[in-house]
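The following record pairs a protein chain with its ligand, adenosine-5'-triphosphate.
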Amino acid sequence: MELKTVELTKEYGKKKAVNRMNITLTQGVYGLLGANGAGKTTLMRLLCALQQPTGGRILLDGQSIGKLGEDYRNLLGYLPQAFRYYPDFRAIDFLLYIAALKGLEGKAAKEKAWGLLEQVGLSCEAKHRIKTFSGGMKQRLGIAQAMLNDPRILILDEPTTGLDPKERVRFRNLISAFSKGRIVILSTHIVSDVEFIAERILVMKAGQIIHWGRPGEITSEIQGQVWECTVPVEHADRYVAKWNVSNLRNEREGYTVLRVIAAQQPMENAKLVTPNLEDLYLYYFQEQTARETYATGGDHTWEGEDAR
Ligand SMILES: Nc1ncnc2c1ncn2[C@@H]1O[C@H](COP(=O)(O)OP(=O)(O)OP(=O)(O)O)[C@@H](O)[C@H]1O
Ligand SMILES: [Mg+2]
């Protein structure tokens, strides 16, 4: 199976949300990493045929997905970023309803729905109304509904939003077990999520994939540019304002260790360290990170798209 975009473009007026993108995805888990507004959701909606591109094409095994139509959509599972559910539905009834929309009924639907509730850790709450669920529980139900039709292509837009650390581990295992022989694409701006789940990371910025590779390899881009600098605690703020700092920790009394991204050694005692994905993210999105801190948050579950 090969899913390919050719010069894929989506413009909103003058804004190019996806800009002449050429990517080829074969089986495996792909982590789409990018800051707010990078174009992740737009790309995913295009891949799900929920939006029409303004330029370029998407091909599955060489055939246009527009021509494949329903045959293509039957292969898809999608968790929208703004996932809409029905608050008065019980979890199991919601899954059976979505299953029916996907053409799955009767005993097969029930077995699948109960199996998925078990897998996402919601079997004890199967008969509870969704409005009583926590954010993380709703998100897990959203993941379950995307998997109902055993999709060959699973597209999850920020699936780990609202999951606690234990749920994240469960999610990771679920995706690893599920991904064999399929294409799984998940977007996030939480670096540690994709670092462990994804076999390939796609870094998206301003509508384009600016970098991609395996988690262990992709950081080679900034090899020789990540430093640890030990500074007196009282000066730390000044350096943080001046340098591109990806992390800091207090090590011994009175001193802070800053992780700095810089082409040149930033100070005399600075030591080169091995770059990680967090550093790479900051390297690409440095000017956006501060803004993003204020722009994120908010529960989108009350308004949004229908599941499919
Ligand atoms: N319906 C729309 N009309 C106009 N502009 C849009 C529309 N949808 C998205 N955009 C713009 O396209 C760009 C990409 O948006 P998109 O939602 O794809 O980004 P994203 O990477 O998913 O961001 P986030 O991390 O915040 O979810 C943004 O600049 C956004 O403002
Ligand atoms: Mg988005």
